[in-house]
Amino acid sequence: MIKIEVAAATTELQKIIAIEIEANANIRQAIELSGILSYFTDFPTVTLLEACGFSVGVYSKAATMDTVLQDGDRVEIYLPLKQSAIDARKARVQQKKARQKVRHKKVRPTRFASLHE
């Protein structure tokens, strides 16, 4: 038997469950045994995690559901990205450009404006 942790999080809830599992168990078996998905109503079943855009890893390193676990590993379930980092940056640049176009140049009154009227 080996001791591992299974972790998952959303913006509202973070959960880490410590379990003991047979040696040579894989990530899929660990997730099923931990029952962690029952805490998250928006998560699909274990068999549909990858198909729905979720990914898994061990200590922040990407892995597959068939990855064999070692004693002390922490399995992490990652939510699908809503937007890639590149697309998010492009959107921020576009927003900044749009804001700059809306700004009007301030007209400074001349020092002797009253003399010319």
From TrEMBL:
InterPro entries: Mopterin_synth/thiamin_S_b, RnfH, RnfH_sf. The lineage of its organism: Bacteria, Pseudomonadati, Pseudomonadota, Gammaproteobacteria, Candidatus Berkiellales. Pfam families: Ub-RnfH. It comes from the Bacteria. Residues 96-109 have a biased composition (Basic residues). Residues 96-117 are annotated as: Disordered. Belongs to the UPF0125 (RnfH) family. This is UPF0125 protein CC99x_002725.
